[in-house]
Amino acid sequence: MTPTAATMTSGGTTARTVLESVLPSGIGVFLDGGIHPGSGVQVTLTAAATGETFTSYADPGRAGVDAALASSVAGAAHWAATNPFERAAILRNVARVVEESAEELALLESATTGKPLRDARAEAAKVAEMFGYYAGWADKITGQTIPVPGNWLTYTQRVPWGVVVAITPWNAPLFTAGWNSAAPLAAGNAVVLKPSEFTPASTLRLAQLASQAGLPDGVFNVVPGLGSSVGAALTTDQRVGKVSFIGSVPTGRRVAAAAAEVGIPTVLELGGKSANIVFADADLDRAADGAISAIFSGAGQSCVAGSRLLVQRSIYEDFLQRVAERAGKLQLGDPLQPTTEVGPIITAPQYQAVSARIRDGLADGADLRTGTALPAAIASGPLATGRWILPTLLAGVGPDNILETTEVFGPVVGADAFDTEEEAIRRANGTRFGLAGAVWTDNVSRAHHVAGAVKAGTFWINSYKTIHVAVPFGGFGDSGHGRSSGPGVLDEYTQTKAVWVPTQASGSPFPSLSY
Ligand code: NAD
Asked: Which residues of the chain have pLDDT under 50?
């Protein structure tokens, strides 16, 4: 039986206990319903809240990839031939089982990543919702009949790609596993998912649950391992029909280029540097709450984080004070405590990177406006050795500051003042990213003008961070291409086939074209 969060404190021992309880076979390749250990280099996992090692596993390398793909090719053929109503029923069952197991999944996610339990619970519920939503589409993917000159019946069919490889990052492993698997599965593809090497546990459990819910063998396989071995092998293997990637810009570009070399198309969901724009006529308390949630939930380890705060000059100091006060009251601490709002930085390299970026931002002239000392409960207890970064508000982050254009992916927001609407829009559009953004104002015309003018795949008016599987999500510019939610994503995961049949025997059905 899975231990409950109420009995545990985050750390290496807890992460090990939860992992052994939920995944007794340990971390390995999930294929055909079972977990198989790899034999390559060891990957060591440490608990974010304490820095303690809690497990290690062997990278499965090329052999693991080969085994998973062989299974997936067979799984894809079987799944594509399965009646769509049956596929829909199985995916509904996956949604039900994930919903019933949400607490266990959330505990596993929180214990092994350091993500606050309340966030992990919300994300587990979202994953059930994703499978439920796309189960609804699985038996509604249709083609068209198309009128053409002459005597023809011409129609289209939507055909799955076969094997879809999904590659996910460490910041929201369970959420992104659902995000990148429910839709391709509904469209009739098999999925091979490579989670981040740092956070494979919840994805493995999700695949186990999907299998228990009736997903046939080979339809959803998981290959935990390093990007340089497993990731590179999966994205360049011609048994793969399509790759969907969520991660950083440099890796996304590398993956897209390598996949293109062997003719595999990609969907890329990459990073962001989203602007949160606050006008003087906004409800400033709501806007301050929104600014806090935009950057500090998930400790800023969020692709849509509102990491640039652009504030109209007349309210700049007042607004920053409201944000700083709220930031100071955020509950940092044990991720397994349901009251914890901000957890540690999930990976050790990211902890180093965020720390360095704060130093760089200060060196470029920014002014630190939030606290400098960790809460006593962290500083003196077992969490003292964890990867903690205080919610950080830096003022005076102008266009020349490194923080204006560089994604930090941590609890760090750079603020600056603007005077006019045009200036705010220009600043918002001053990066190559285009993932998200928001505007806070009581002027409805201004709200829609700014929403129309900012280059971003998602934009909120007087809100931040709401996303739903029914609504398209994806980036402009360096933030990626393709979409990963909403009904349109079914186009990403199917190809269109046109079928022609002559409807009258007379006349030649063979036109003289050399297309
Ligand atoms: P990353 O790019 O370092 O890694 C992402 C994944 O790619 C991992 O699974 C990694 O193992 C794999 N990988 C690495 N090298 C590879 C290679 N050569 N071939 C194939 N796969 C390879 O990103 P990360 O540090 O895990 O995640 C943080 C980044 O993800 C941030 O930039 C963040 O903005 C982005 N992100 C974007 C979204 C979104 O929806 N747009 C969501 C979450 C995270």
From this structure: none
